[in-house]
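Friendly challenge for the regulars: who can give me the structure tokens for this chain first? No prize, just bragging rights.
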Amino acid sequence: MTPGAKQERRKLKIALIGQSVFGKSVLEALVEKGEDEIVGVFAPPIREGHSSDPISDTANELNVPVYEFSRLRDQEAIDQFNSLEPELCVMAFVTDIVPMEMINFPSLGTIQYHPSLLPLHRGPSSINWPIINGETETGLTIFWPDEGLDTGPVLMQKHVTIAPEATLGSVYFNKLYPLGVEAMVESVDLVRAGTAPKIVQDESNATYESWCKASDVAVDWLAGVDTVFNMIRGADPQPGANTTHNGINLSLYDAARSSYISDGHSPGAVVEISGEKIIVSAADGSIAIGRVRATGGKKIGAAEWAESVDLKVGDLFGI
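First reply, four minutes later:
Bragging rights claimed.
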């Protein structure tokens, strides 16, 4: 090599396991950077009656090979993965169980995105629970997965604040999604450079929560305003905090603390119907609800729904 000439940087062979718009965005970011070769994308197969996954569509557009297996644990999937001889595996939003035969195969290992500050909030609903708990900070972790659930060594973490009015949707789409894509690309750079850390998680600080299900976010109107408000925004848009009206389940969205003084009203009572909102009494205040969804229906404005069911001030939720 002549003096002063730059040594060409070797491209890594990367296999990407992912899905949905987050996986799609990670794929696009890695391809756009052009530092490495994406040797294959492992994506969920098309379900009957549904469209193909966004990551599959994008991979096809970018001429990246796509492999769709119902179960990554099947030997056929493992053999296909290994045949590509990836040096690094990148896991970007994975809900299937990835076998250790895949995780351990790449010579440089496997890295994974998780939307919490591990070891806090291990588990599948790690964005919901910090909001429901009223926490003011969360973040994301890029880590090296091992046999445990979100237990592997940490490569990188980024912190984000949870604003007082933030919802699950706003925390994810405005913060953890774009920051997560950037962190994945930065992490690949560190792996390529041979400087990616492996920081053992402190098990004394570990917490775990399972899926946040609708049954976990049934509103207790006897609770305080903060508890009710945090539950509604932490489950907005999924799975939707819920209550009942005349025996019909009703999911609640676009909530806000209300200045309405609810003295004299029973918890769960409708105290005002005005504009686009309905206001409901809690134990120590009231909550304004902007949108609702009745069982089998679509999300609509709360006032529109109130009119459709002839809701009146004094009617009770939760009975």
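Helices lie at 20-33, 54-61, 75-83, 100-103, 128-132, 168-193, 225-234, 302-308. The chain has two domains: 13-205, 214-308. Your move, everyone else.
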